[in-house]
Amino acid sequence: MDAEIALLRNETRRDPTGVDALLDTDFIEIGRSGRRWTRDEIVGALAAEQRREMPTTDEWLFNEIAPGLFLVTYRLDTHATSSRHSSIWDTKSGVPRIRFHQGTVIPPGSGGPAGSATA
Question: Which of 3, 13, 56, 60 has the most C-beta neighbours closer than 10 Å?
Answer without folding.
Answer: 13
